[in-house]
Design a protein that fits this description.
The protein is mainly alpha-helical and about 325 residues long. Strands 1-2-4-3 form a four-stranded mixed beta sheet, with helices on both faces. Helix 1 crosses helix 2, helix 1 packs antiparallel against helix 7 and helix 5 crosses helix 8. The chain is elongated, with a radius of gyration of 23 Å.
Length: about 325
Amino acid sequence: MKYVGLQQQITSNNRKSVVLLLLFPILVLVMVYAFIFFTNYSSEIPDSLNYINQEFISTIPFVLIAVGIWFVIAYFTNTTIINKTAGSHTLSRKENMRVYNLTENLCMSVGMKMPKLRIIESQALNAFASGINENSYTVTLTRGIINALEDDELEGVIAHELTHIRNHDVKLLIVSIIFVGIFAFVMRMALRGFIPTRSSRNRKNNEGGGGGGYILIIILAVVAYFLSFLFKMALSRRREYMADAGAVELTRNPLALARALEKISGNSHIKEVKSDDIQEMYIDYTPPKSKAFNISGSLFASHPPIEKRIAYLKQLYEGM
C-alpha cells in the first residue's frame, strides 16, 4: 500500500466528501425532471421539450421548499433523537475522571471546545460522535470500551471521534441521513399508493395512463433511494479513513488506535441499539450476516474493513 501523508489524506477525503454531498440535492432535481419528462414527452408534439423544461423550472421552488422544511425539522431535532435512540445518558466528571482528562487534554492541544460526554450501558466496545454545533457536539462511549481499553488506546478512540467533530463529519453524515430518509419516505409512500400521479397533457384519458405514471413514480423513487444510499455509504467510508488519520495527528500514536481497533473488532455490536443510522455512526459497524448486501468493503458498507484500517495505521507508524 502506497504511503499517503496525513494532510494529503485529509485534503483528498474532504474534496471527495464535498462532491458526494453535492450529489444528494442534484439527485432530487434529476428525479423530478425525469418524472416530468417521461410523463409529458411526445415526439409528435413539437414544443414538448420546451413544455417539460418550463414545468421543471416552475416545480423547482416547490420541491426545494418541501425538501427544505423536511431538512430543517430533521436537522435541528437530530441530537435529541440520536441520544434517545442510542439509550445514552450523561457521563459525569465525578463518575469517570479518566475519560474527562483524556478528552480535555486532546481538546486543549488543538484549541477546541470540550464536547459533551455520554455513555451507553453496554459491554460492547464502540463509540460515536454526534451534534450540529458547539452546544450539541457529543462523544458517546460504551461502558465496555471505557473498561476494556488502556489509556493510550482510549485516547486514540476519543481522538478519532473528536476528528469527526473538527472536520464537521457529524454534520455531513446527518445531512446524508436526512436526504436518504427523504427518498426512503417517497419510496414507501409510492409503494403504498399514497402518492397520486399528476395528469399530463400527453397522457391518454384511460386507466393505463394513470397506472403508467404510478409505476414510474415507484421506479424513480426506488432508483433515487438506492443511489442516495450508495452516496451515503461512500461518504461514511471516506470520513472513517480521515478520522483515523486525524486521530494520529492528535495523538502521534497510530499503534495505540490500531490496538484499540483490534480489540473493538468482533466486539462492537451494541444489541440495545436497533437504528441503522445510529449504528453507521459508530467507530466500527459490521452488519449482522443476515442483513442484505452485507459484503465487507463493498459499495454497501458504511465502514471500510477494520483490517484495512489497522494496516493503514501501521503504515502511518512506519512512515513517521
